[in-house]
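User: structure tokens for this one?
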Amino acid sequence: MIDQPQRRNIQITMNAVVVAIDSNYDFATTAAFNYRQQNVYPYIDERGFVIERCQGQLARRIYVALAASKSNVVYLTGAGHGSYDTFTGEYHNPIFKVGNYSPEESQGKIIHFLSCQIAALLGVDFVKYGCRAFFGYDIDFTFILKTADIFFECDSEIDRAFAEGLTAEEVYQRVYSLYTKYADESFWQGDLNTFKYLETARDHLCAPSVDRRWGDPLARLE
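Assistant:
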């Protein structure tokens, strides 16, 4: 007897909001911003979420703090520069810093930021203050400019998978597999730089499946 595929019903809370926090002021942030504008936010929108944008000149602490604190926000995502304890916005404006944000900004939310280093301290701190699951990197996120879209596609699979209703564990496995697929292809094509940095990003992606410091593997958008 052949097992029939099971259909998953995803119920999105009415007016569930995703806050998009994206810098757009240098070659790295602009490249990520352009990819995410074209390939991430339309996908999230199609799945019934409301997107509140804190991008470009609005990627600043004063705007993000107000947006993230709202009770109907379920997911924070975006791209910008960072350090171990700080995620920055436009022109390195500190947006989230350990010890310098309110619990309401992380409580009950799932958070994913494409940024260098922030998983090491800030991601753990988010979970300490109620974040249900955090995805990010604990070292520099390095990409090759000529193959940048591959790196952004792998990282953005986090957003797409959560928007589909997957658990944090399922999201991690899907992203890990995608990184591995593109790393293997790059190796066999002789592009060893892309191969090396894809593997590095994959192996330093921090998530609840790696350690419970980054939240609950069963967390999903609801």
